[in-house]
Amino acid sequence: MKKALLLFSGGQDSAICLAWALSRFDEVMTVGFEYGQRHDVEMTARQKIREKIVEQFPQWAPRLKEDDVLDLAALGQISETAMTRDQEIIVDAQGLPNTFVPGRNLAFMVFAAALAWRRNIDTLIGGMCETDFSGYPDCREDTLRAQLHALNLGMGRDYEFETPLMHLTKAQSWQLCYELGGDRLVGLVREYSHTCYKGVREILHDWGYGCAECPACELRAEGWQDYQNMIVKS
């Protein structure tokens, strides 16, 4: 019995990772985090994605198990960023956007590992990617591997942390999505996942919902266009 716990935000990357996990593990549990994020609409999106996966991919439905949402409000309280405050999104002189929440992914891994302990799970999965990301240092593979090493030492376990998108571009992640579930899965992720930092869900673009102005929307739109170009060339 292979079991995994997915760090599941409801965004494009974690939605693709959910399909990836369901195609490989006998049981997949999900965990989300409430940390005062400005785009809290993702918490609704994640539930909708779970529902649609069960509805549209019945072969995966028996594998999708419990979902937990953990309260990390303290993280938002100490993070005065555009991700947790209603303020303009800017990029500093070092190229780091002020949507960066210091320690977020590190904290997520700690709490996910603690939950995995309780549920007797040894594999964690995350949608982090360092190929074309928004400049966040806690999305880098070296960072995550170091944190995993610390968790294994501190908990006396041998956790594995799978990051299937780590070295993929956004276009390649869409291609992986297609390989996992065809156009049906691509359409599901496009329509129901949420990436926009501002939480905009009024306009459905070719690439999904969003404001089309924030860094997350720009990255998602560019990745979608690159994916369309890949299809044309093939």
Describe the structure.
By secondary structure, this protein is of the alpha/beta class. The protein has one domain (3-169): HUPs (Rossmann fold). It is built from seven helices and seven strands, in the order βαβαβααβαβαββα. The chain has helices at residues 12-22, 41-56, 73-77, 104-118, 141-155, 170-192, 215-233; strands at residues 3-7, 27-34, 64-71, 123-125, 160-162, 204-205, 208-209. Strands 3-2-1-4-5 form a five-stranded parallel β-sheet, sandwiched between helices. Strands 6-7 form a two-stranded antiparallel ribbon. Helix 1 (12-22) links the parallel strand 1 and strand 2. Helix 2 crosses helix 6, helix 4 packs parallel to helix 5 (141-155) and helix 6 (170-192) packs across helix 7 (215-233). The longest helix is centred in the C-terminal third of the chain and has 23 residues, at 170-192. It starts with a strand and ends with a helix.
The percentage of residues in β strands lies in: 5-15%
Question: Can you count the beta strands?
Answer: 7
Low-confidence stretches: none
N-to-C terminal Cα separation, in Å? 38 Å
User: Largest sheet, described in full?
Assistant: 5 strands, parallel
What radius of gyration results from the CA coordinates? 17 Å
Compute the number of structural domains. 1
**Major sheet: arrangement of strands:** 3-2-1-4-5
Briefly note the CATH topology name. Answer: Rossmann fold
The shape is globular
Q: Report the CATH architecture.
A: 3-Layer(aba) Sandwich
Which percent bin holds the helix content?
40-55%
CATH superfamily: HUPs
Label the structural class: alpha/beta
Q: What's the CATH class, please? A: Alpha Beta
Average pLDDT, rounded to a whole number, is 89
Order of helices and strands: EHEHEHHEHEHEEH
Helix count equals 7
